[in-house]
Structures are given as structure tokens and as C-alpha cells.
Design a protein that fits this description.
Blueprint: E1 12-15, E2 20-25, E3 31-37, E4 43-48, E5 50-52, E6 55-60, E7 68-74, E8 77-78, E9 83-84, E10 99-100, E11 112-113, E12 116-120, E13 131-133, E14 156-159, H1 179-182, H2 185-194, E15 198-201, E16 205-207, H3 211-215, E17 226-232, H4 244-258, E18 262-267, H5 284-292, H6 318-333, E19 339-342, H7 360-367, E20 375-378, E21 398-400, H8 402-412, H9 419-426, H10 430-433, E22 443-445, H11 455-458, H12 494-512, E23 517-521, H13 555-570, E24 586-589, H14 598-602, E25 608-613, E26 633-638, E27 644-647, E28 657-662, E29 680-681, E30 686-689, E31 693-699
Parallel strand pairs: 14-15, 14-23, 15-18, 18-19, 19-20, 20-21, 21-22, 22-23
Antiparallel strand pairs: 1-2, 2-6, 3-4, 3-7, 5-6, 7-13, 8-9, 10-13, 11-12, 16-17, 24-25, 25-26, 26-31, 27-30, 28-29, 28-31
Length: about 700
């Protein structure tokens, strides 16, 4: 085969219309072979003889899109020194933009001999490995425009590409579970009807299931086990050609953009699927183990694990950092995504052992002209010591606010002494974010997410029910902060079912009336249940998939959720860009209508309060410098199990008060709803709020 020298940049396989340049970094390699595969699996090797700055490269003028390839790296195999090169192991390209085939678990995938981990395993792993594929980078993006929805106007919907469509009766069967299925009109129409501005997709990078899951007949459904940071997962593609997932993903993004919906990716740059020292050799480990992974300085055979997954990516090494940044830029520039949610983001800030908000990774993001301009959302913790970092990320970043989730759950299940925390969380968590010059939108507020109970299960189960996962119910957290309303699991008791429905509405009203960025878990508006499983990471089945057939039984909840999002969209008082000053813009009142005192805040038994949001005292200007005014709203929260009588404010800003929401019902009465029988109340009058109920009133 004709071989030209090629160039050391860009890394990966790059087709230019005439041929393909291949480039692979390895500081420890003594020889690198590019392995080309035919459709029948036959292998042809091309030795890379050009090396510049530890990048091995060549250009093959006869190779184009669709060519399957991988690498073999010859070099030192001394695990006790952190070196794990083994030419018998076929290795995926860290910069590969597509993967064809699936991993088949076999001892050949491991670089050591079972039972003798110090001895090298020279069995060829190629028969059990997937391959990379050269892709065609060209795509017709004509007419595509990023929505660029400001944070304070955003409503995020967390979803799984496969789970959101597998049971959708109006998505063509051949498209269910795929990028194309997510982009079909029935799914997009549902999102736009709700008022969703951004869909946050659970991991779409190429991933593989862990061996122990495969042995049980399960898989890593969530996808937090990445092996290719540039490649869209091939299992979510309906395309026939081996690299078709790239164009299919782009088409999905373009369709969502056309509907005004941003695409945010949940990304896992903290670890890879190669696990710890006894894990398989699939890519990074065999290319340059010490460059890509954090190893113990005293014993390089040991992998430092801040993720609970066996390894941690080495963010101290320039080529690992380059891989992360190149990957992020690729997904923005080539795939047109609008932002990222970083899984276990604290692990990316561990240059030594402590979490450092000024680490190299954050400095690179800060100065990058591409990555710094998209939405950046941190899961602000990892499993290492000192890893819980809520409120401590740099100014560009927003965060999944785990304290919001915990406090709101505690308040509505009736835990004592929660009023001060509850007040902080629903007003944007200024105690967490204001001191670092951030705004309320630094807080991504959520009650539920993929990790834990769905909202329906949150009000139906006290305990996890994870036996289906195969770990004797030992996996998943036991700190659910849930309340089953009196019976564990499904019940025919109408009173309990009514209470559960009301609690769901309480959570939704709290979420969409809080300052910050609201995030809704896919299916919560449809009453989705996982049957009490709070860790369905391995359940690629009806436990995890959204049940669209059941949506007909929860149409009132869909309408209720849509109306709340519309209310938030129409009223800037619920989505302020700046924190409340506490002077005229917000008032905290007791049920008696008096200002909350220090004693009231400290009363451990108190579970009720009123919040007055003054729409005429919004301090921040509009986008053109204009003053922003809005109606004033009064929120009456009652987490007691008994009704509480609230006295409405006697003075302005209301000539009268209209009841907009009462979670005792599923109705939202707004001007748009045209409700002719809206309940009107006079200032200083009394309004009873039922047990475990929230009432929202607007000044008219």
C-alpha cells in the first residue's frame, strides 16, 4: 500500500477528500502499527515510521470514509513501572470519530494472564474488539443556528437517547432508541409543548459495558463507561453504514435546533472503560498508560481512583488535557452541540490530590474561545476525599445543585427546621454562589435526575428496590429523602394516590418558581416509574424506558407541567438574573401575614411560610437597558399535614389577589388559560391552604 509521511496534526484519522492522515500520540512506544480491516475482518498492518513530538503518523492516499482501523503499540511492558504496552492487543484510537462493532468479553482483552497478573498475555485481542472507522466530516449545516438561549430563560430536560423513544408508539419501530428517533416530530412536539429549551442527553460518547454486567445479561445502560471521547455511540444509530452515526447525530442536532431546542451532552472525562490495574486493555492503557491515567507515584502499578470506576484520567498530563479540550471543541464545532454537563467534575480539578478550582483544566476552559462560550454545567463532586464541591466552581460554570434537591425533598416530606435552607434554595442559593461573583443561574435546580428515584417513585417508596440489578439490593444510595405517603409502592387507596399526585405537583411548582435554571427528568411529567429502582444504570428495558402509553393516564400532569413552564417563561420575576436584594423585591411572611423574625426562622416545628415576589422592584435591566416590571406573586407553602390559614398582605402591590395555582387541584389559572371562574381574594383576607399544598397567587 502506498504510504506517505503525513503530518503529526491533527491527531486521529482525518480524510481530506483525497486520502486519510493518521496520527497517534505515544511517548513510550517503540513501534506503532496501523491496522486496516476489511469487512470480513482480515487485517493489513502499516508501520508508522514518522514520529514528531511523540506523535506517530502517516498519510494513506488510497484510504477514505468507511475504512475500519485500529492500532497496535510495541513498547515496554512493566506494570510495576506503569508501562503496559502489548502489541498483541488491538487498540482503539483515542481520537477515533466512529466505532464499528461491539466488544465481546474474552480473556484475550486483558494484557496479563488470569491467575498470574505479572505475566504478559500475548493472545491476540482483535477477534473480540470493535474497530474505529474513518468518517466523512462533511455535512450540510445550511440553515442551522444555535438557539443560544440565555441561562435565565432555559428549561433543561434530562433524557436518554434510547430510553426516551423505545416505547413511543408514534416513533417508527426501526428508529426507536436512536438519534433519528429522538429527532422525530412526536418527540420534538412533546418537548416544544412542554416549553423545553434544552435537552441534556445522558452520555453519547462511545461506551462499553463492564464485564460483570455482561456476565449477568445486563449492560451499562446509562453509558458512563466511555472508550471513545470523539465518537457518538454506535448503539444509538439506525444507519446501515459503519460510520453513519456521525451524520445521524448531526441531523438530530439540526432538527432540535430548528425547534429552538439546545443540545447539551453529559460527558465523562473523569475515567474510561479500562477500569483499574486488572481491567482490559482497549485503548489508552496500551498506548501510553502513564500519560492517560493517574498512577500512584510510590507504586505506578496502582491506579488512583477518584471516580469509583477503577481509574481517573490524568489531567496533569498535557496530552490528556489536549484530548479533553480537542474533544470538547470537536463536539461544538463539528457536531454543533450547545453545552456540556461534566460528570464527577471535581475529579477534573485534582492536579495533585486536592480539588483545585484554579487547576489547568479550568484555566484551559476559561481561555478557550470556543468551549468558554457554550453552556458548562458541573456535577460538582466526585468520590474522593473532599470531593463535594457544590458552590465552589469558577465563574463561567453552572452546577447541578445537590443541596437544592436535598432541601426541597426534606421540606416536602415534613422534616423539621428546614425553612432557612428552603428559603435559600428557592431564591437561587446566594449562600453558595454570590461570593464568587456568580448569579442565580449558577444553580441548576432539580428534584430528580437519572441517578435516583423518579418523581413518581419519590412519593411512592421509602426504600430502594434494586434487586433486578443483581447486587442483592446493595447498590444505589439509601439516602433517598423520599416519603411513600403511607404505603410502599403501588396502592389502590385513593387517598394515598391523591396525596402522591399532590406531592408531585408541590415539587413541580417549587421547581419552576425557584430562581436558577430548572431541570426536569424525562418522564416525570408522565408519571414515569422505575418500580422503586433508584440505580437503574444497568436496566436497558422497561424499567428505564419512558412509558408513553401510560401518558394518557397522566395527561393532566403533562398539562400542569406545561402551564407551569409557560408561567415561568411569561413572568421574569421567577427567572431573575440577579439575586434578591431583600429590600423591596422580596418579603418573607408568616402564615399570620407578619414579617418573619429570627425566632420564626429558628422555629424547628415551622413548616409553612409565605413568599412575596414584587414584580415592580426587579433591579436588573432588560437586554436593551429597559426597566423590567412584572406582576407580583405570592407563594403560600404548607408542608404541614394539616390545613393552615394564611393572611394575605394588606398593603400594595395588589388591589386583589388571583389564585393561579393550588396543588390540591391540577389546574393552572392564567390569562392564557382563560379561566372565567378564577378565585379572587382581597388584601388582608384569609386563604386556607390544605395540608401539604402550595398555593400561588398573582396581584391584579
Amino acid at each position: 500500500m502506498q504510504t506517505w509521511p503525513g503530518t503529526a496534526y491533527p491527531l486521529g484519522a482525518t480524510w481530506d477528500g483525497s486520502g486519510t492522515n493518521f496520527a497517534l500520540f505515544s511517548e513510550v512506544a517503540e513501534r506503532v502499527d496501523l491496522c486496516l480491516f476489511d469487512a470480513d475482518g482480515s487485517e493489513q498492518r502499516v508501520e508508522l515510521t514518522e514520529v514528531d513530538g511523540f506523535v506517530w503518523h502517516c498519510y494513506l492516499p488510497a484510504v477514505g470514509p468507511g475504512q475500519r482501523y485500529a492500532y497496535r503499540v510495541t513498547g515496554p511492558y512493566e506494570p510495576r513501572k506503569g508501562q503496559r504496552c502489548n502489541a498483541a492487543k488491538l487498540l482503539l484510537d483515542p481520537y477515533g470519530k466512529a466505532v464499528d462493532g461491539d466488544l465481546r468479553w474474552d480473556p484475550a482483552l486483558f494484557d496479563y494472564q488470569f491467575g498470574s497478573p505479572d505475566k504478559i498475555n500475548d493472545t491476540d485481542s482483535a477477534p473480540f474488539m470493535p474497530r474505529n472507522v474513518v468518517v466523512n466530516p462533511y455535512f450540510d449545516w445550511t440553515g442551522d443556528r444555535a438557539p443560544r438561549t440565555p441561562y435565565h430563560q432555559s428549561v433543561i430536560y434530562e433524557a436518554h437517547v434510547r430510553g426516551i423513544t423505545m416505547r413511543h408508539p408514534h416513533v417508527p419501530e426501526e428508529l426507536r432508541g436512536t438519534y433519528s428517533g429522538l429527532a422525530t416530530p412526536p418527540v420534538i412536539e412533546h418537548l416544544t409543548k412542554l416549553g423545553i429549551t434544552a435537552i441534556e442527553l445522558m452520555p453519547v460518547h462511545q461506551s462499553v459495558p463492564e464485564q460483570q454486567l455482561a456476565a449477568r445479561g445486563l449492560t451499562n445502560y446509562w453509558g458512563y463507561n466511555t472508550i471513545g471521547f470523539m465518537a457518538p455511540h454506535n448503539g444509538y444509530s439506525s444507519a446501515a453504514e459503519p460510520h453513519g452515526q456521525v451524520a445521524e447525530f448531526k441531523s438530530m442536532v439540526k432538527a432540535l435546533h430548528e425547534a429552538g431546542i439546545e443540545v447539551i451532552l453529559d460527558v465523562v472525562y473523569n475515567h474510561t472503560a479500562e477500569s483499574g490495574g486488572l481491567g482490559p486493555t482497549l485503548s489508552f492503557r496500551g498506548i501510553d498508560n502513564a500519560a492517560y491515567y493517574r498512577l500512584d507515584d510510590a507504586d505506578p502499578s496502582i491506579y488512583l481512583d477518584y471516580t469509583g470506576c477503577g481509574n481517573s484520567l490524568n489531567v496533569r498530563h498535557p496530552h490528556s488535557l489536549q484530548l479533553i479540550m480537542d474533544s470538547l471543541r470537536y463536539w461544538v464545532l463539528d457536531m454543533h452541540v450547545d453545552g456540556f454537563r461534566f460528570d464527577l467534575a471535581a475529579a477534573l480539578a485534582r492536579e495533585l490530590h486536592e480539588v483545585d478550582r484554579l487547576s489547568s483544566f479550568f484555566e484551559l476552559v476559561q481561555q478557550d474561545p470556543v468551549v468558554s462560550q457554550v453552556k458548562l454545567i458541573a456535577e460538582p463532586w466526585d468520590v474522593g476525599a473532599g470531593g463535594y464541591q457544590v458552590g465552589k466552581f469558577p465563574p463561567l460554570w453552572t452546577e447541578w445543585n445537590g443541596k437544592y434537591r436535598d432541601t426541597v425533598r426534606d421540606f416536602w416530606r415534613g422534616q423539621p427546621a428546614k425553612l432557612p435552607d428552603f428559603a435559600s434554595r428557592i431564591t437561587g442559593s446566594s449562600d453558595l454562589y454570590e461570593t464568587s461573583a456568580r448569579r442565580p443561574v449558577a444553580s441548576v435546580n432539580f428534584v430528580t435526575c437519572h441517578d435516583g428515584f423518579t418523581m413518581a417513585d419519590l412519593v411512592s417508596y421509602n426504600d430502594k428496590h434494586n434487586l433486578a440489578n443483581g447486587d442483592n439490593n446493595s447498590d444505589g444510595t439509601s439516602d433517598n429523602r423520599s416519603w411513600n405517603c403511607g404505603v410502599e409502592g403501588p396502592t389502590d387507596d385513593p387517598a394515598i394516590n391523591e396525596l402522591r399526585s399532590r406531592q408531585v405537583r408541590n415539587f413541580l411548582v417549587t421547581l419552576f418558581c425557584s430562581q436558577g435554571v430548572p431541570m426536569l427528568l424525562a418522564g416525570d411529567e408522565l408519571g414515569r416509574t422505575q418500580r422503586g429502582n433508584n440505580n437503574a444504570y444497568c436496566q436497558d428495558n422497561e424499567i428505564s424506558w419512558v412509558d408513553w402509553e401510560a401518558a394518557s393516564d397522566h395527561q393532566d400532569l403533562v398539562e400542569f407541567t406545561s402551564a407551569l413552564i409557560a408561567l415561568r417563561r411569561d413572568h421574569p420575576v421567577f427567572r431573575r438574573r440577579r439575586f434578591f436584594s431583600g429590600h423591596r423585591d422580596i418579603s418573607w411572611l408568616t402564615p399570620a401575614g407578619t414579617q418573619m423574625t429570627v425566632a420564626d426562622w429558628r422555629a424547628g416545628f415551622a413548616r409553612s411560610l409565605a413568599v412575596l415576589l414584587n414584580g415592580e422592584a426587579i433591579t436588573e435591566p432588560g437586554p436593551r437597558g429597559e426597566a423590567i416590571t412584572d406582576r407580583s406573586f405570592l407563594l403560600l407553602f404548607n408542608a404541614h399535614d394539616q390545613p393552615v390559614s394564611f393572611t394575605l398582605p394588606a398593603a400594595a402591590p395588589a388591589a386583589s389577589w388571583q389564585v393561579v395555582v393550588d396543588t390540591a387541584t391540577a389546574q393552572v389559572a392564567t390569562e392564557a388559560s382563560g379561566a372565567p371562574e378564577a378565585e379572587l381574594l382581597s388584601p388582608a383576607s384569609k386563604r386556607e391552604v390544605g395540608g401539604r399544598t402550595v398555593v400561588l397567587l398573582q396581584a391584579i
